[in-house]
């Protein structure tokens, strides 16, 4: 018997897999389904043990997100969640036991699950405790400088008495709160179920409530506390509640739960007030990465990820091995105490018992520039902000004190690999010994920091800003997805601060220079104004407005837009197309001309080493300054719009490349429209005024879509059948015989052709169809993963089918012989609304020139009923293109109408143009069933949403929460676009 106990069961039970460490085997098992785990557990005794580990089933259960109800074990919870739990499982609850299998990895994990934290007795720690501080004392001694533990700030809060387990359960037991766990999915539990889970669980990293929407879920909780007087200043309060990034959290967690090592997002500061229990805090100053932690910074977009052990694991396994000089600043927080964590400080929290707390992050005068810096595009400065000079290669430290230039490509120390395009900052144990959880470590913390002491790392904005990539343009560069707000929201935030906090404009300007290069574009706008004899921008006018990707300045009665989005080639084509469009409006005398801004001037501005030289350009021909860029193939006439819409359409089909910094920027100056954009006043408009807006948009879209489309000419060589150019199956014989496997098995006949105009459009759509699932997966939440898996079955293999082609006649079968102009970006910030108290009369008899077009009344201006506001203009035609008019309904319905079907019906009543194709016959290569699908206007609209270059699906699943549980794309199509199938053209 004794001999049998000494036998290692692992060798025979795992076979060749025995060479794989247990931690890797357990990691692999997390990719399997519940059914696969059940099958694998039958293979051997060791597999049975590994496949029944609670942490494994916890990971499996949390994979799909949703609302949880804990059943006493994670395996039971998972089986119940997937409707796999039966009476058979109940009869086999007692697990099997096997001798002769020992695993240090599993033992340590088991120990962390069942250990208690009684040994962490209260101690004062190294962190200062302060009873009373004035705002002046706090700002001078601690704000932006050092953490501090503050007592008695919350003594008057109702939460001191009301935020107990019993009271919260009584008042909010049925409310579902969001849980924090390492999962990309939203996980919630009702509070009563969560409290039950806390009593039953033995997890090594327990779930804890960490909900930034608790104020919306349980509004009365916001009445139980107030922001302490020391932290009242918050620059994000200029944003509307639904626009500001997450900033406040309710935190409830059991013993052993907590937050692993991290730096707060965007280098904001935070305060955290404890109402119940005890918390253990550990903190390191900025730039000092805790031992056991690895920082990853993506070189492409600056996204920052931090890998490290759980809070409990760090305290149990790493902390005891630290030398005294390597230990963090520590404290035990007691009920009623508030801890302040300054910008950039690393911190880790361990709940010593059940705790309830509330916390808020904020941006104020002391950290504002750091927040702007952190959200700036690029990666080098992000690494330095979090890891100090460890983010630079060994022996490659620039002389930053003397202002020497810094190589933005210089990163990290010896263990960094460039191949993965991610810098890794990691440390081993003291004296070079590696910890088991950090095999990448190379040197002890004290050794590294002793080495760097003479390098003068400073957590100062002047020092850190030197690590910005100077050639990167912050308006056009890809922003990090880990930023707390996107670039559009950032531009809106900074502009609001500029307008609403005039006393702090110097600070705001400094932050905006870091985030937006605002000084560069303001100087550029001033030179453009001087060149065209326009007034110089006033102080309040030198800051760009709007949320778009191009700097826009309001100067007196004019709007100056500098076109930089997408790089030189894209921006030049955008302006060329816009100028071609305005010229067409004049030639055709379209009624739309009364509802678009008047063009005052246009041209190119050249950056000559920081000095800006403007040149006029009306869109015709190719300016000499652009000749060397070879933007157009073939000969171009000087009076032709060679860089117009068809050249722009061809540009869509080129393989995207990196956007190189440009020294030439197109610009356009238009007359400033009176009124306000719809986005600013939409919530104050009466329903009748919004209905009138829908009619206005229908009429103006009708005018836009009736404009003649320029022919494919201008001497440009369009290589429509060049596979390397368009990558499209239509018209390409060697591709058309290789369909993608999905519901549309039919493929158009070999040699099938369609008009060149439509072939370019189909080719552009086909380009977006490439790697479709991968792109939707990257967008992720709230797009359901189950629908992403089905998307290729829903989209037709041959996208030309969307436009009704007929093989029998080898011709295009549709209402329009050619595609139409489309704006493609009519959103709530591109529509001007004017107060009727200030607007001219629109009763059809006024002498106001805007009410007539060459003496003919403009139908959209005929007064139907008294209104408070009336729409007057549509803005921003820089995204103009050629395509299916149905495409224009996407931003209108989702952004302006926000899915309101009655507004969509009102729009269609005024639009009066066909949205469907005339179906003469069913092509022989398409089944009747699929042809019925293709006939639905709603189907075509849904396909455009899926193939859209922007994350339109994210907007759809945000507007219609119930669709996140939809089982098919047909259901989504019906809810969002079903009304289109009832549309009968009356024009």
UniProtKB/TrEMBL annotation:
<dbReference type="GO" id="GO:0046872">
    <property type="term" value="F:metal ion binding"/>
</dbReference>
<keyword id="KW-0560">Oxidoreductase</keyword>
<dbReference type="InterPro" id="IPR001810">
    <property type="entry name" value="F-box_dom"/>
</dbReference>
<feature type="domain" description="F-box">
    <location>
        <begin position="14"/>
        <end position="60"/>
    </location>
</feature>
<comment type="similarity">
    <text>Belongs to the JARID1 histone demethylase family.</text>
</comment>
<dbReference type="InterPro" id="IPR011009">
    <property type="entry name" value="Kinase-like_dom_sf"/>
</dbReference>
<keyword id="KW-0408">Iron</keyword>
<keyword id="KW-0539">Nucleus</keyword>
<feature type="domain" description="JmjC">
    <location>
        <begin position="216"/>
        <end position="379"/>
    </location>
</feature>
<dbReference type="GO" id="GO:0005737">
    <property type="term" value="C:cytoplasm"/>
</dbReference>
<dbReference type="Pfam" id="PF12937">
    <property type="entry name" value="F-box-like"/>
</dbReference>
<dbReference type="InterPro" id="IPR050910">
    <property type="entry name" value="JMJD6_ArgDemeth/LysHydrox"/>
</dbReference>
<dbReference type="GO" id="GO:0005634">
    <property type="term" value="C:nucleus"/>
</dbReference>
<protein>
    <recommendedName>
        <fullName>JmjC domain-containing protein</fullName>
    </recommendedName>
</protein>
<dbReference type="InterPro" id="IPR041667">
    <property type="entry name" value="Cupin_8"/>
</dbReference>
<dbReference type="InterPro" id="IPR003347">
    <property type="entry name" value="JmjC_dom"/>
</dbReference>
<dbReference type="GO" id="GO:0016491">
    <property type="term" value="F:oxidoreductase activity"/>
</dbReference>
<dbReference type="Pfam" id="PF13621">
    <property type="entry name" value="Cupin_8"/>
</dbReference>
<dbReference type="InterPro" id="IPR036047">
    <property type="entry name" value="F-box-like_dom_sf"/>
</dbReference>
<keyword id="KW-0479">Metal-binding</keyword>
């Amino acid at each position: 018997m004794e001999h049998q106990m000494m036998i290692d069961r692992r060798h025979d039970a795992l076979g060749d897999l025995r060479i794989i460490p247990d931690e890797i085997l357990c990691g692999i098992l997390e990719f399997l389904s519940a059914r696969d785990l059940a099958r694998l557990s039958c293979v051997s005794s060791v597999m049975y043990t590994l496949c029944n580990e609670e942490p494994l089933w916890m990971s499996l259960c949390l994979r799909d997100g949703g609302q949880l109800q804990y059943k006493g074990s994670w395996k039971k919870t998972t089986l119940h969640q997937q409707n796999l739990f039966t009476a058979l499982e109940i009869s086999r609850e007692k697990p099997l036991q096997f001798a002769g299998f020992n695993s240090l990895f599993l033992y340590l994990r088991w120990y962390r699950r069942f250990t208690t934290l009684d040994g962490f007795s209260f101690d004062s720690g190294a962190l200062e405790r302060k009873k009373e501080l004035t705002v002046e004392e706090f700002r001078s001694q601690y704000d932006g400088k050092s953490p501090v533990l503050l007592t008695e700030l919350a003594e008057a809060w109702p939460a001191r008495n009301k935020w107990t387990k019993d009271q919260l359960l009584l008042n909010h037991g049925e409310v579902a709160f969001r849980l924090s766990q390492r999962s990309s999915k939203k996980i919630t539990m009702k509070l009563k179920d969560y409290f039950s889970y806390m009593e039953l669980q033995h997890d090594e990293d327990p779930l804890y409530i960490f909900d930034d929407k608790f104020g919306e879920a349980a509004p009365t909780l916001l009445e139980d506390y107030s922001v302490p007087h020391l932290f009242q200043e918050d620059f994000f309060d200029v944003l509307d509640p639904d626009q500001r990034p997450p900033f406040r959290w309710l935190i409830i967690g059991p013993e052993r739960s907590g937050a692993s090592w991290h730096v707060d997002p965007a280098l904001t500061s935070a305060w955290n007030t404890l109402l119940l229990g005890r918390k253990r805090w550990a903190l390191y100053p900025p730039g000092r990465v805790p031992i056991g932690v690895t920082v990853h910074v993506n070189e492409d977009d600056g996204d920052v990820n931090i890998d490290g052990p759980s809070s409990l694991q760090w305290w149990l396994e790493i902390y005891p091995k630290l030398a005294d000089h390597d230990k963090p600043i520590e404290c035990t927080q007691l009920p009623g105490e508030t801890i302040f964590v300054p910008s950039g400080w690393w911190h880790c929290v361990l709940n010593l018992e059940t705790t309830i707390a509330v916390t808020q992050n904020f941006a104020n005068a002391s950290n504002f520039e750091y927040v702007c810096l952190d959200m700036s595009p690029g990666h080098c400065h992000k690494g330095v902000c979090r890891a100090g000079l460890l983010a630079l290669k060994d022996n490659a430290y620039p002389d930053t004190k003397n202002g020497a230039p810094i190589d933005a490509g210089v990163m990290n120390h010896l263990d960094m690999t460039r191949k993965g395009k991610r810098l890794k900052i990691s440390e081993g144990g003291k004296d070079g010994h590696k910890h088991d959880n950090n095999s990448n470590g190379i040197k002890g913390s004290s050794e590294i920091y002793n080495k760097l002491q003479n390098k003068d790392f400073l957590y100062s904005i002047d020092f850190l800003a030197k690590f910005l990539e100077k050639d990167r343009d912050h308006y056009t560069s890809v922003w990090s997805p880990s930023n707390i707000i996107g670039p559009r929201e950032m531009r809106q935030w900074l502009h609001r601060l500029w307008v609403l906090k005039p006393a702090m404009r110097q600070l705001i300007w400094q932050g905006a220079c870091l985030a937006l290069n605002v000084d560069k574009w303001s100087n550029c706008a001033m030179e453009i104004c001087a060149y065209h004899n326009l007034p110089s921008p006033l102080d309040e006018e030198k800051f760009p407005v709007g949320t778009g990707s191009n700097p826009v300045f309001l100067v007196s009665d004019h709007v100056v837009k500098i076109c930089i989005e997408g790089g030189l080639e894209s921006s030049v084509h955008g302006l060329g197309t816009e100028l071609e469009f305005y010229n067409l409006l004049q030639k055709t005398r379209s009624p739309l001309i009364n509802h678009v801004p008047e063009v005052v001037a246009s041209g190119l501005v050249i950056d000559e080493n920081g000095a800006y030289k403007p040149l006029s350009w009306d869109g015709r021909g190719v300016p000499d300054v652009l000749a060397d860029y070879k933007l157009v193939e073939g000969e171009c006439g000087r009076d032709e719009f060679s860089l117009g819409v068809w050249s722009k359409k061809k540009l869509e089909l080129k393989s995207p490349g990196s956007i190189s910094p440009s020294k030439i920027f197109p610009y356009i100056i238009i007359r400033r429209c009176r009124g306000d954009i719809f986005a600013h006043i939409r919530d104050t408009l009466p329903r009748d005024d919004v209905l009138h807006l829908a009619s206005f948009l229908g009429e103006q879209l009708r005018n836009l879509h009736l404009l003649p489309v320029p022919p494919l000419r201008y001497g440009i060589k369009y290589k429509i059948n060049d596979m390397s150019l368009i990558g499209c199956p239509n018209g390409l014989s060697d591709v058309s015989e290789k369909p993608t496997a999905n519901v549309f098995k039919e493929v158009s006949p070999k040699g099938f052709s369609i008009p060149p105009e439509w072939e370019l459009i189909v080719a552009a759509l086909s380009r977006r169809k490439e790697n479709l699932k991968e792109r939707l997966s990257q967008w992720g939440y709230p797009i359901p993963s189950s629908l992403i898996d089905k998307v290729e079955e829903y989209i037709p293999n041959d996208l030309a089918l969307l436009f009704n082609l007929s093989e029998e006649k080898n011709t295009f079968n549709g209402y329009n012989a050619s595609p139409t102009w489309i704006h493609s970006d009519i959103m709530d910030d591109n529509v001007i609304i004017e107060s009727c108290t200030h607007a001219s009369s629109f009763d059809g008899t006024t002498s106001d020139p805007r009410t007539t077009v060459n003496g003919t009344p403009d139908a959209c201006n005929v007064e139907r009923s008294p209104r408070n506001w009336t729409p007057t203009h549509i803005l921003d035609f820089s995204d103009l293109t050629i395509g299916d008019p149905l495409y224009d309904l996407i931003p209108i319905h989702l952004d302006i109408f926000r899915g309101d079907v009655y507004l969509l019906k009102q729009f269609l009543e005024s639009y009066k143009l066909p949205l469907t194709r005339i179906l003469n016959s069913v092509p022989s290569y398409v089944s009747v069933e699929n042809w019925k699908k293709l006939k639905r206007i709603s189907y075509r609209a849904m396909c455009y949403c899926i193939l859209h270059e922007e994350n339109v699906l994210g907007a759809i699943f945000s507007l219609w929460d119930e669709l996140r549980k939809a089982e098919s794309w047909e259901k989504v199509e019906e809810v969002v676009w079903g009304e289109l199938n009832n549309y009968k053209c009356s024009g």
